[in-house]
From TrEMBL:
It comes from the Bacteria. Residues 15-145, 157-286 form the EamA domain. The chain crosses the membrane at residues 12-30, 36-59, 79-96, 108-124, 131-151, 157-175, 182-203, 215-232, 244-263, 269-290. InterPro entries: EamA_dom, EmrE-like. This is Membrane protein. SUPFAM superfamilies: Multidrug resistance efflux transporter EmrE (SSF103481). The keyword Oxidoreductase does not apply. GO terms for cellular component: membrane. Keywords: Membrane, Transmembrane, Transmembrane helix.
Length: 305
């Protein structure tokens, strides 16, 4: 029998849950803000502004030495490749935002954990049980339902959202290869530094001077993105992964709520059914990982006795 958690441990877990939930709310608000602006501004300009603000936040938090630490990282090539993959993912996702509802975008995005589980076999050589394959299949059926035939007149937007999910999954696979050896701020500097450089090259051809209100909203997008990354990292440090992982799906609820509150979007039954199946598939994978981690822990304890 496991020992009961102490008040201090319980408080740490609860604070971690609060931090993670706050982070996913910020990410949803960030996506809603970008969707609002992307109608009038180029995706590249919004990404440049967002990443510039995040870099400033990183330098305030970690100082100039972060640049030297990033350049000296033994995993710089892998992280640079990941940055380019993420750049492509964000570009596809926010370009699709011009034509899709926030709930539709987010539903397709949440297929990325399922893609990670599938890609872990050929890339990381992980063994995936029949139960997990069943979960992956359920989730992908949800994606197909969410991308229903009524959107065949907008195949480019659907295709870009699906491409973004695939690219995010590949970026996660790359990060899992180096995550234990790299600080969060360092990977944030590398990723957002690459965003600023690449987007900055295209900026002279797409720049549109924003109004003061829209400029402040662009800055706020970066603040929300940077704060969200920091809060979710702190939440992970304080709370077991089996508790944190399901909380990410709260972002799906926020997407439906914000889409309705801001644009009056009422998603049809297909999107709700697709989102539910993706949620079920994701939770099945999380549950399988939780059981596997408990089994490994019990085996380690047994080996020590």
């Amino acid at each position: 029998m496991a020992a009961p958690s102490s008040p201090g441990e319980s408080g740490s877990v609860l604070s971690g849950i609060g931090l993670a939930l706050s982070a996913y709310l910020l990410f949803s608000l960030q996506d809603a803000s970008v969707k609002w602006l992307v109608v009038a501004y180029a995706t590249v300009q919004l990404m440049f502004m967002r990443s510039s603000v995040i870099l400033v936040i990183c330098f305030i938090s970690g100082g100039p030495r972060l640049v030297l630490e990033a350049l000296a990282s033994p995993h710089l090539k892998t992280l640079a490749l990941r940055a380019l993959v993420l750049l492509s993912a964000w570009f596809c996702y926010y370009t699709a935002a011009r034509h899709l509802q926030l709930a539709e975008m987010s539903t397709i995005y949440f297929s990325s954990p399922l893609i990670v589980a599938a890609l872990a076999v050929p890339i990381l050589h992980e063994r995936v049980s029949p139960f997990r394959w069943c979960a992956i299949a359920i989730g992908f059926v949800g994606v197909l339902i969410a991308c229903r035939p009524t959107h065949l007149h907008e195949p480019l937007a659907i295709g870009m959202a699906l491409t973004a999910a695939l690219l995010w999954a590949y970026a996660m696979i790359l990060f899992r290869q180096v995550a234990p050896q790299i600080r969060t701020l360092v990977q944030m500097v590398i990723s957002n530094g690459a965003f600023v450089i690449v987007c900055g090259l295209a900026l002279p051809w797409v720049w549109k001077t924003p109004s003061l209100r829209e400029f402040l909203l662009m800055v706020l997008i970066g603040v929300m993105g940077g704060a969200g990354q920091f809060l979710v990292t702190e939440g992970i440090k304080r709370t077991p992964a089996s508790v944190i992982a399901p909380l990410e799906f709260s972002g799906l609820l926020w997407a439906f709520a914000l889409g309705y509150l801001i644009w009056g979007d009422l998603s049809d039954v297909a999107v709700f059914v697709g989102a539910a199946l993706i949620l079920i598939g994701g939770m099945m994978i999380i549950g399988a990982e939780w059981r596997a981690s408990r089994r490994r822990a019990m085996e380690r304890r047994a080996a020590l006795t």
